[in-house]
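Batch job 17 of 40 flagged for manual review because the log was empty.
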Amino acid sequence: MNSERNSEVAKFIQAHLANSPYTVEEITLLLGFRGPDMVEGFLRGDRKVPLNKVQVLAEALGCDRRQLFESVLRSWFDIEFLDAIKEIFAGGSSSSTEQEWIRFLRELYGENIPELTPALRRRLRLFASVPS
C-alpha cells in the first residue's frame, strides 16, 4: 500500500517528528494505538493516517494541522473529490484571490497569524500604495 500519496504524508510527518517533543512510542499512546506499528507504518508510507487521528497527530508533531489534514486527505481521495469538497465548503465564502491571500498568510505565519491591529493595517496600506 506504499503509494506516492502516502509517501507525501510520510515525508511531512518525518520532517516534523524531529522537532516534536514526543517519541514515536509516545505519539503512539497519544493516538490511542497499542503498539508503534501503525505510527511506524505512517512514517514508512505503508499505512494511511486515519482521518480521526489527524488532529491529535498534528498536535503531537507541533505542525500546522491544516497542512497535515490536506496531505492526509490527498492520500485518501482523488483530486476531483477534494476539489468538490473545497468548492462546497468554501463556496461563496471568498474568491480564489482571497483564498490565495489566506494561503499565503498561513504559509508565512503558520498557526501564529498576528492580529490585524490598526498599526498593521496602516503598514499594509502603505505597502500596497508603494509603486512596484
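Reviewer: the log was empty due to a logging misconfiguration, but the result itself is present. Residues 73 and 82 are 8 Å apart (CA to CA). Unflagging and moving on to job 18.
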